[in-house]
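User: Predict the structure for this protein chain, please.
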Amino acid sequence: MRTVNTREIADKIYELALRAGVTLTPSCLAALKEAESSESCAAAKFALSTLLDNADLSAREKLPVCQDTGMAVVILDIGQDVFLEGELLENAVNDAVRRAYADGYFRKSICDPLTRQNTGDNTPAAIHTHICAGDKIEITYLPKGFGSENMSAMYILKPAQGVDGIVEAIVSTVKKAGSRPCPPVYVGVGIGGSFDTCAFLAKKALTRDVGTHNRRADIAEIERRALEGINALDIGCQGFHGKTTALGVSCEWAYTHIAGLPVAVNIQCHCVRCQKATI
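Assistant: Here is the predicted structure, written as structure tokens:
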């Protein structure tokens, strides 16, 4: 048994949040550079070049890479041989987010869904915990902007719709979104599970490196087909047409009920800001 104080978790999340606010992931940067170098549409090529310049300036000057500094999504995979001591884990996580958004001068965007009263410190975070084997804690931090979140969708397909139905749901979601989620987008997809677990799988898929593929060959084929279909839409970077509407499609799956086929599509803009650490 290993003892970890929740203050240590909070301090690590604070570091990840500050870094994520000003830095795109290496895989996102690589995908943007590849898209820019291969783009033949002049307007889209210029837009991609501008996005890369913005990312470089943000990292160099420690400035928010996007004005929407997002809702803090925190995923904690906690080994069952870890004993947590100190303040309540939820309070520790929210304290870390509160401090990071103040010290990083990040926009505070969290509010009551009805009154729209802003909480003033970007809390509470969306916290997901999972108990796993071992004595370590894996922390994943994803600040999720809502220009892209608003373009996401949930489907309960008929089982008979199968793979073709899944691919159609993914492509049609991006087509309907058009230029609104600031493409080129990164698309996270959840397949299976229940209504709630499917949506989380789609969010978790966005924490994978852009360009990676699911280990299941049939799921990887869905990723390939969906990406091909999306990039054939000719929406392009920021809606200027061109070859790249999506940088990647990542799918995660879970067993589901015989009567349903849940599919969740979580859209991420070009600004992928995921950071990870292990305690």
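The chain has eight helices and ten strands.
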